[in-house]
Write a structure and sequence with these properties.
Pfam families: HTH_3 (PF01381). This protein is an all-alpha fold. The chain folds into 2 domains: about 80 residues, 434 Repressor (Amino-terminal Domain), CATH 1.10.260.40; about 30 residues. It is built from 7 helices and no strands. α2 crosses α3. The chain is flat. The N terminus is likely disordered.
Length: about 130
Amino acid sequence: METVKKNNHIGRKIGRIRELRGIKQETLAEMLGVSQQSVSKIEQSENLDTERLEAVAKALGVTPEAIHNFSEELAINYFNNFNDSSEGTFNNHCTFNPLDKVIELYERLVQAEKDKVTYLENLLDKK
């Protein structure tokens, strides 16, 4: 009987999401108020306590559930679904307005930047 091992290593998922978001460990460390080594430890951890997971998720601009449900295969499939149709026939079967998704992403990025500024201002006020 063959068993399938479910990849539920939270640290690896966090690291991969961080990479996909284009955030360096040093930047995430500053956002969390910890050292880069602490972020490295987080990414090596199989599990995280709820409070730490929520802080990391907020810094990455995702929900804790998104981290738990992250799948490398789904991420790869998402990017592979953008096929090059250079044969002249392009069948667009979008069930959503792509512009809405771009606007949604832009708004999330702007909010993440605002959160970073607020966080850094709070750090400066403490000093």
